[in-house]
Specification:
Blueprint (H helix, E strand, L loop, with lengths): L14 E7 L2 E5 L4 H22 L6 H23 L4 H7 L3 H19 L15 E2 L5 H10 L15 H13 L14 E2 L29
Antiparallel strand pairs: 1-2, 3-4
């Protein structure tokens, strides 16, 4: 059966095709041009999206979230530093925060992997995954080493190059590598010292506040 409509209501490009499948004749109904244009735009846009967000400077939503969390902890870190309260338990809590660990991993791979290996297996620098330590096993020992550097071994002091939260994040991430057993680990260096639980590590003694000045009592008349 053919469509014999004429006049303004007659279809301009729709028509029955001259072949059929299972007795059903196919009706050619082209897609709207706006839909086809959108389809081709997505085809062109997709490789540009992949290049920019996966290989270029673009940030995926989870990366933006991690960056916002680093900025949040940065403000908290500055407050803690002002009170002198960066402690073992503080760094241990960061090890349980996925955003901080993601941020710390990126910093480690970008700045520390050259010497310590991509997985902390060791290279120019020591292996960070075993229980042998050159500067102490605790998270605060790692934090101080990252912050102050080891000038005689060629390790930079990262305090001036990383923000407070970044220092804490990369220190906590480096601490999380203990026991990870990556391949091709460097032989142990330093003394074997197991890491104590955070609650067993005494915080650094705080400076005692000065007693308030008292006014001299008036002399009795």
């Amino acid at each position: 059966m053919s469509d014999e409509r004429t006049g303004p209501e007659a279809p301009q490009s729709d028509h029955l095709l001259d072949h059929a499948y299972d007795g059903i004749q196919e009706y050619d109904n082209p897609l709207p041009r706006w839909w086809l244009a959108l389809f081709w735009i997505t085809i062109v846009f997709t490789p540009l999206y992949i290049l920019y967000f996966h290989f270029g400077g673009g940030m995926l939503p989870n990366e933006r979230y991690d960056q916002e969390m680093i900025a949040f902890y940065d403000r908290q870190a500055e407050e803690l530093l002002a009170m002198g309260e960066i402690r073992e338990a503080t760094l241990a809590e960061l090890m349980a925060d996925p955003s901080m660990m993601n941020g710390g991993k990126k910093i480690f791979q970008g700045k520390c992997a050259t010497c310590h290996g991509m997985f902390g297996e060791g290279g120019i620098g020591p292996n960070l995954t075993d229980e042998h330590w050159l500067h102490g096993p605790q998270l605060m020992d790692i934090y101080r080493t990252v912050r102050d550097g080891v000038t005689d071994k060629g390790m930079l002091a990262w305090e001036r190059q990383l923000r407070p939260a970044e220092l804490m994040a990369v220190s906590a991430y480096a601490g999380s590598l203990l026991g990870s057993q990556p391949p091709n680990t460097k032989p142990p260096q330093g003394e074997r010292a197991p890491r104590a639980a955070p609650e067993a590590v005494a915080p650094a003694p705080a400076a005692e506040p000065e007693p308030p000045a008292t006014e001299a009592a008036p002399a009795a008349s």
